[in-house]
């Protein structure tokens, strides 16, 4: 998700103290089976197709619910310590290590300060089946996802020079490897080698559009995608929103200045972890971040009034916020509208990666502004895939619809979750409510499945 750093660096010290308290992991089963041999074979062919040198490092398998299992593959994609990606498969099994033959498959791309699990999968302390990936797998969809390189960088890292060339182009290359791998494994395990859908939330939708933009120039047999599902992302502003495009240019210039000075990392995830730890350990303590607020109020403010945290820069859209909040008579945040258990959100924050490469953030602002020449929007009119745009009225919502009008597709479906009048947009369904809210299954996940079923 898009984030702007505003928290004090005291959180770095706080988080360091908290390390080791939030490292419990679900048990997994690692096994040498014919299925692993299949994956080894698949990564070889995928690497060749994607022109991306890689090798299979580890494979783990764990039960999600009933006969739904998650396979997690770590793939080495370079010589560096953190040159690796994760690939997930959540699917029904006929028997141990034998997935069902599934007609529909989707590759999910996470956003900022997330990994696959904290965006779409298993959330610490929550039922393993309570996720978009498990929901679709239960319906018979073959669900895949990626962990981008920066998700493997540990909380203790201090030298980020290796991130210098980690940008949209690098991540698209890794995503292509993941897609080719998924198609190869599906072919080898009975689901055929057909094209697959791609779903991206937030920054993940930026990568989705960039992927489809590049793929549109390939011969049809070399293409991978059957359809795309961008979730709550602005890729291009309409001419009527030129002021918002100008704000994107100003954010681009600010981030680019940091990059040019040698800052190749964005540490918003670390700061959010610090806020989460303070809230979990001392919710009523006085916040060192927002004067006059408790730790819990500070965390709720960042979640529910995210637009205020961008200052002195402007938020991507007016009243943009992660989650819809509730506020007391004095205007202080006191809860979340659509997430009953605050512990759920704290668990997500504590389990998410601390660091992210700056490159794709700069690319994103360049794309959105329209004032900086980048290669990721040159062929939008050549994208003729079926499209489902899913937005949140309190996130990027309707602002993300304009991009769909620039595509060459004749099959475009738009769904913006809107629960309040326009004048209450600051309180409406938020950017991350689409994937974390208690009612997301009904409002978001079910419509996504229904759209997939018709294509």
From TrEMBL:
UniProt keyword annotations, A-Z: Hydrolase, Signal
Transferase recorded as keyword: no
Region forming the signal peptide: 1-26
SUPFAM superfamilies on file: alpha/beta-Hydrolases
Gene Ontology molecular-function annotations: hydrolase activity
Protein name from the UniProt record: Alpha/beta hydrolase family protein
Source species of the chain: Pelotomaculum schinkii
Lineage: Bacteria, Bacillati, Bacillota, Clostridia, Eubacteriales
């Amino acid at each position: 998700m898009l984030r702007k750093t505003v928290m004090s660096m005291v959180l770095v010290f706080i988080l360091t103290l908290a390390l080791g308290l939030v490292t419990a992991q679900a048990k997994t089963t690692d096994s040498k089976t014919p299925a692993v041999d299949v994956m080894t074979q698949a990564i070889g062919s995928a690497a060749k197709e994607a022109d991306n040198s890689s090798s299979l490092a580890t494979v783990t398998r764990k039960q999600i619910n009933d006969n739904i299992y998650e396979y997690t593959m770590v793939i080495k994609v370079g010589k560096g310590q953190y040159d690796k990606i994760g690939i997930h498969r959540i699917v029904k099994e006929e028997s141990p290590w034998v997935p069902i033959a599934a007609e529909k498959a989707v590759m999910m791309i996470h956003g900022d300060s997330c990994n696959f699990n904290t965006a779409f999968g298993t959330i610490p302390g929550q039922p393993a089946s309570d996720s978009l990936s498990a929901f679709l797998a239960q319906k018979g969809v073959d669900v895949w996802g990626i962990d981008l390189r920066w998700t493997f960088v540990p909380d203790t890292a201090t030298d980020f020079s290796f991130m210098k060339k980690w940008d949209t182009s690098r991540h698209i290359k890794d995503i292509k490897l993941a897609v080719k791998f998924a198609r190869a494994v599906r072919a080898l395990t009975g689901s055929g080698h057909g094209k697959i859908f791609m779903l991206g939330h937030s920054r993940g939708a930026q990568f989705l559009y960039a992927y489809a933009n590049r793929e549109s120039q390939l011969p049809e047999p070399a293409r991978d995608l059957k359809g795309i599902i961008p979730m709550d992302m602005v890729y291009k502003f309409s001419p009527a929103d030129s002021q918002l495009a100008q704000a994107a240019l100003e954010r681009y210039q600010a981030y680019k200045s940091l990059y040019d000075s040698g800052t190749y990392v964005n540490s918003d995830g670390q700061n959010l972890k610090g806020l989460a730890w303070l809230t979990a350990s001392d919710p009523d303590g006085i916040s060192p971040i927002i004067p006059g607020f408790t730790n819990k109020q500070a965390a709720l403010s960042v979640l529910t009034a995210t637009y205020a945290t961008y200052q002195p820069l402007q938020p991507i859209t007016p009243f943009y916020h992660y989650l819809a909040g509730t506020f007391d008579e004095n205007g202080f945040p006191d809860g979340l509208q659509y997430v009953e258990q605050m512990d759920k959100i704290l668990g997500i924050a504590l389990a998410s990666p601390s660091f992210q490469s700056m490159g794709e953030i700069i690319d994103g602002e360049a794309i959105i502004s329209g004032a900086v020449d980048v290669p990721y929007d040159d062929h939008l009119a050549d994208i003729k895939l079926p499209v489902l745009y899913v937005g949140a009225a309190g996130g990027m919502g309707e602002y993300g619809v304009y991009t769909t009008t620039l595509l060459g597709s004749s099959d475009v479906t738009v769904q913006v979750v809107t629960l309040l009048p326009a004048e209450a947009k600051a309180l409406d369904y938020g950017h991350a409510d689409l994937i974390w809210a208690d009612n997301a299954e009904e409002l978001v996940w079910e419509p996504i499945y229904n759209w997939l079923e018709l294509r």
